[in-house]
TrEMBL record:
It comes from the Eukaryota. It comes from Onychorhynchus coronatus (Royal flycatcher). Keywords: Coiled coil. Residues 3-103 form a coiled coil. The keyword Coiled coil applies. This is MYO5B protein.
Length: 149
């Protein structure tokens, strides 16, 4: 039984090896064909006049720059959209702070929270996180004000 098990494992390994070898051969054939095509294109380019070579080079560079420009425009659009979203959030938070400050002004002086020495420390991380923040309910207005400023 042990001998049969070892033979079966050996046959499985042999089949895996043969499959991997076949995959590598196919990749090698594809790379050789691609190399041959690139060599043919290079030879054809070298046989062209210098003016045509320059024109082809310029066309390739224009294509590359056009693609890069489109990528940059897409990035700018995303950033502008994010900026609008953040400005909208800022307006909302500013309104909340103003409302809170107005409500605090209505309270008697002895009931107002003493927040002159309170500061919120935020640790910066290398990665972008979206997570939870734990705080006391009475510290919420101070936290919002500190986040905005």
């Amino acid at each position: 039984p042990v001998l049969r098990l070892l033979e079966a494992q050996l046959q499985d390994q042999r089949r895996d090896h043969e499959e991997q070898l076949e995959t590598l051969r196919n990749q090698l054939d594809a790379m050789q064909e691609e190399l041959h095509n690139q060599q043919q294109a290079s030879l054809q380019t070298l046989q062209l006049s210098p003016e045509v070579q320059v024109e082809l080079g310029l066309q390739q560079e224009i294509t590359r720059l056009t693609n890069e420009n489109l990528d940059l425009k897409e990035s700018v659009e995303k950033l502008e959209k994010n900026e609008k979203k953040l400005k909208k959030q800022l307006k909302i938070y500013m309104k909340k702070v103003q409302d809170f400050e107005a409500s605090q002004a209505m309270l008697p002086a002895d009931r107002r929270p003493h927040d002159s020495n309170m500061q919120v420390a935020v640790q910066r991380k290398e990665k972008d996180f979206q997570g939870m923040l734990e705080y006391c309910k009475e510290d919420e207005p101070l936290l919002i004000r500190n986040l905005i400023t």
